[in-house]
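Re-running the complex after MR caught last week's input typo. The corrected sequence lines follow. Everything else is unchanged.
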Amino acid sequence: MSWGLPIAVYLFLAGAGAGAFLCAIGAEVYSRRTFRPLVHSGTLISGPLVALGMPFLIYDLGMGQREPWRIFFLFFGNPGSIMSWGAWIISAFVTVALTLAFLELDFDETWPWLEHRRPHHPKLYRRLTLLKELMTPIHHIIEPYRGRLLVAGTILALATTIYTGLLIGVLNSVPLWNSAILPVLFMDSALSTGLAASVVYAVVQPIEERRLLAHHFFSLNQIHALMIVVEVLFIFSWLLLAANSSTAAGQSIHLLMFGDLALFFWIGIAFFGILDPMLIYIYEVVLGKPLMAYGMIVSDGSVLVGGFILRYLALAAAVPVMLF
Amino acid sequence: MSRIRLSRRDFLKAIGAAGALSIGVGAVGATRALGKGQTRGTWDEMPHLIPTVCGMCDARCGVLAYVVRDRLYKLEGNYRHSQSQGKICSRGSAGVKLLYDPDRLKYPLKRVGDGLFDRISWEQAFQEIAGKLAQIREKDGPQALAWAVHPDLSELWDRQFMAAFGSPNIFTQSSLGQASARLASRLTLGWEPVPDLKNARHIVLFGRNYAESIFYTAATTALMQAKEKGARIVVIDPRLSRMASQAHEWIPIRPGTDGAMLQAMMNVLIAEALYDAPFVEANTVGFQELKDFLADKTPAWASTMCDVPAETIRRLAQEMASARPAALVDPGRHGAWGATYSNSFQTARAALALNALLGNYGSKGGLLTPPPSPLGGFLPPATSPLQAARADGAGDAQAPLASSRDGVFQMLPEIILTEQPHAIRALIANHVNPARSLPNTAKAMRALAKLDLLVVIDTQLTDTAELAHYILPESTYLERLDPPSPSGYLLSEVALRQPVVKAMYDSKPAYEIVDGLAKALGLGEDFSFTVEDVISESLKPLSLDQAELSREGLWRDAKEPAYGKPSFDTPSGRIELLSRRLEAAGFDPLPAYSPPAALPRGSDAFRLVQGRDAAHTGTATQNNAYLHMLSPENRLWISASRAARLGIKSGDLLVVSSPAGDIRIKANVTQGIHPDAVFMVHGFGHNTSAQRTAYHQGVNDNVLTSDARDPVAGSAAMGETIVRVRRAR
Amino acid sequence: MARYGLVVDLTKCVGCGSCTVACQAQWELEPEERWLRLEIQEEGVYPSASQRFTTVQCMHCDDAPCVRVCPTAANYKRRDGLVLMHEGRCIGCKYCVVACPYQARVFNEERGTPGKCRLCDVRIQKGVQPACVLSCPAGARYFGDLDDPTSEVSRLIVLKKARQLRPDLRTGPNIYYVR
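Corrected-run output:
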């Protein structure tokens, strides 16, 4: 297939970033105080995650590096193209998410990591402090709009998660993709990987943050386990529908489960994406208490691996429609 | 520290302005930039068209070359040429990749070690080769030189050289592919018939493959036009060729047994009184003898031998009879009886006889006399008569009916190795690749390696060239002015091959090379003519000069083929169903059938059938970038039923062995082949790393092939190759 | 305005590949770039086996997926029916390559853009047949205006009951096949 690793990475990062945002919003709406570390980490990482995916996208473009100004056409060329919508959605989302991430930073407090730099790198400290001072008024100006930005961001995040599935879901050239389940599956995967990314980021923070979150890992993981069960159901229906729909789709399924991609499928998705995190979450329920931080990194890191492999296999297992 | 004071409003205004600006720039950019990328295949100036003659196979269809700024852009069929009619096959179009093949021979080379060559000048090449030839003539006589003739329009120079040098041992490739059929035609009719496909109503093709062995494009067009008009096409072939796939009926036949089927069909025509009695009465000799001879050659008899149901044979004969005289058995080229089995000659005779029973000679939709060549002959300077007799005995008591003009090329390795009847020390291979074209490659290469002098004239560094002492780079057909080509599909026509670009690198046309060699040997008097002299002499009867012909590219007289009772150029003036000449030479005067000499016995034994595919001409095209893409390798076709019993699946690597050698090749398990046969396309398996595209692609079939011969015509019978097939471990 | 298309008579096609190479020669393509390809299906069991040949290329669809999905509007359908591309607008995203159900587009890594059959637009504007049509030794290919009921292609479609390839994909292809 023409779309390979770079696009898989882009789809994964876009999904994870949007998903992290949505989890952060969900956590904030539910109880900002209780889940503050999750809200904080989710909001902080969502913009950069999606932004990190964009160089992969541009790398994959045949002309992207040669004549980058053509990317303008992407926005104004064809309003009917889902990729065009995607360009707007992603650009807007990254702007909003990065702005909200900026707002997460507390400019009125001193920043300990900055203070630690003072004795060792005095020049750098002075420059960064100056930058902080310049940004502070901007921070204050934007702050009141946080509510509206959150609403916009939520809509854009939802749009992002749906768009990644819709992009290939509307094509009739690859029966494996031509399914209404795909956008929903990708959305669930986005939420799951977004949550996992936020948790991993939160867990590697200084100890105070981590301990705050640790109380709530238990309920978080229950929610996450539910997401994974739903994802399993979606994957199952997707593959079942595909196997019964056409020869080409059947060939895709065969490739995935028994053919050249079987190793990726069973180890990447079945084990890392589903079995490994589920086992850890169930173990928690049995033990009755949340695991140590490294346990979270293993379970949620596995979710991330599985989420990436899902996007990659969706592209790699594509078999074009049979013409004869 | 100063603080930047921005009001909220100002800030928002700034953001808004920046946004609007970028939208504006984007929109403007979008409307302005519209497709400026360089488009391939388009030109600022019009290409100019030069008519010439294709050289990618022996058909020599007329083509038009599109040339822009002294560079060949592409080739198309010449609309006005009867052989192409504007069409061009894949090989014709790919000519551009031959001209610009980066692996082409560029300058004369001299061998300095095993597979190692140094560049030398033309003078040095001519001097040294001439010197060695003179030495060889001194020591072993002029007959120690053998010459393999250029297959394309330069034959005059080759023959003149040998005549002047004093050696009779000149060879064409006819004995490898067509000699049996050509001899049969000459003895039976006196000429080689051409089928009028377009008007035929029932066309039977024994192995003739108009889909993959395209010769001419106009013939393939005519066949399909006939099909469209309702003609019935039947293909009899051990393999489901692409031609067979397009026919109305594919009749698989045990390879080598076509003669039996032909006899049975004739039996039916006679027994059921379906043959054209008046025609036979008026135009043939020997019918009564033939009738008596065929009395017991029933479909049932034939069926046991050729594995075709008796009812099918009967039905086919009846169907042909009901369509006569516009019913024909195609005379074929190589395929079933050109020069394939030991019985090829008689099988070819049987086909010609069957056509006679249908009374189709000279009829619309039947077999026609080939159009006469309107060209004048060029007489080169006379040379002294030859002292020595041909080493292969062609035309002598040994092989009385074998053509002494063409010789028996596949005998050459045996002669070189045994030095019987005399030593042959030198071979000049003019655009010929005996290391791959001759049967039994191992033997052929031993013989070539034994030569004191091997000179190869070619456009590519072939497997033969790799063994040579001197390699001389020839200009391709796109860079040469050649003597006019008597061409024409059912019509008298002449086409001129002229250069479309200047000769590239340090190459020369082959005749200039031969001319240079001759002059270095002191034979200048016998080579006092140029190609322009030949052209002008040839064109005299047409009252044309070279310049005029060059503008149009071709000349033609008639518009329609000539129908009507033909005259037969035989001793009796008739179709010789019974040939006294054959009898006098000790062969069966009637088209008798004998089974192939060798038969496959055993669960792993098969008969090797060789053949063509549409992308390749022998061994000449495997390095062509476009043609390699169409057909990069050959695989061994094997029937699904027998493959299953041997545990073979498509793609498996097989070991195939014969007494001559063995090869490793991938399997193509198919339903489309007779269980007795395995099939390979000929021409692959180049072992020369200089040919970077062709190197080690596919496998050389002639490693396996047998030295057997058709005893009448002396031609090669490579179909007598029995192989054993197993999976490689 | 015309609606140009092709009729391919598969009862004549001998699977020789001449059209493929003629197209490559016309557009100076790389050997791996095939804008026109031959598909072969083997059917049946010995001795009643047979092969079917089909040539596949851009169908110049009425409702072309490649035009619909192209984010920069580089792909467009011309008024005379040809689906073409503005070379200067293409960003090389390969959405059209992936979207074409006939796999008609070939991505050229060196140029960074996809290529496909152009119905020989530069030839037909000079009144010359497309290269593949002209070259076919079997005379199996026809070019003309599908909107003109008196054109050769229109008559062939009616007379020989020519059909599109996978019309159920609903792209409105403009190449018809006779079987």
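None of the earlier attempt is carried over here. Chain A touches chain B at residues 69-70, 72-73, 75-77, 130, 133-134, 137-138, 141 (CB under 8 Å). Chain A has one domain: 5-316.
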